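Is this the right way to post structure tokens for a design question? Let me know if I should format differently. Anyway, here goes:
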């Protein structure tokens, strides 16, 4: 069953203003994943490949996951908004609201042990806070009985490399991967 078939009821009710087949990117990952990652919205690379986090931010995320010994294939990876916003603009509030019920359905279906919200958009939306990601990253919050940890968006670490150790530390904590002091491939 495709993602669209699985959540068919949602797609039937989604207002056409928020739908564009050519810009749609479904979630990826096991339906019973223990960890769910929630990004912002797909970009051009994601649309091309039909999968979230496969562009530069995705490569960065993969590097960090590999460095901490985590397996991307075990994670359920989704976005707040599943249509690429035009011209790489930020998702609008009404777009986030239109797509929010689908994310709630995904959370119910996957039933993850922990949800990681990547960056400000996903974190502020899911935690209903105005606090910025630099203030709240790495802390575990409870939302409707579920654990949520905001972490830096991997794209933010591309602009500001000093954020990479924090992203790595937070992912280690969330995924239960201890720091063994081993050299990282990305240091080569
Ligand atoms: N950034 C996101 O937030 N999501 C993606 O899928 C890709 C980049």
């Amino acid at each position: 069953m495709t993602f669209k078939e699985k959540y068919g009821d949602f797609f039937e009710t989604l207002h056409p203003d928020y739908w564009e087949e050519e810009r749609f990117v479904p979630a990826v990952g096991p339906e019973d994943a223990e960890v769910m990652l929630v990004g912002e919205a797909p970009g051009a690379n994601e649309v091309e490949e039909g999968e979230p986090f496969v562009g530069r931010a995705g490569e960065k995320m993969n590097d960090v996951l590999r460095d901490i010994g985590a397996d991307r294939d075990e994670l359920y990876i989704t976005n707040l908004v599943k249509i690429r916003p035009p011209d790489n603009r930020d998702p609008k509030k009404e777009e986030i609201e239109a797509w929010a019920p689908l994310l709630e359905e995904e959370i119910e279906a996957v039933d993850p042990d922990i949800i990681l919200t990547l960056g400000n958009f996903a974190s502020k939306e899911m935690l209903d806070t105005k606090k910025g990601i630099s203030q709240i990253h790495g802390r575990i919050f409870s939302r409707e009985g579920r654990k949520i940890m905001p972490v830096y968006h991997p794209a933010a670490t591309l602009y500001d490399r000093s954020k990479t150790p924090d992203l790595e530390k937070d992912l280690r904590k969330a995924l239960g991967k201890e720091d063994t002091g081993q050299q990282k491939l990305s240091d080569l």
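Format looks fine. Someone answered above. Worth noting: The chain is about 40% helix and 10% strand. The chain has a mean pLDDT of 95.
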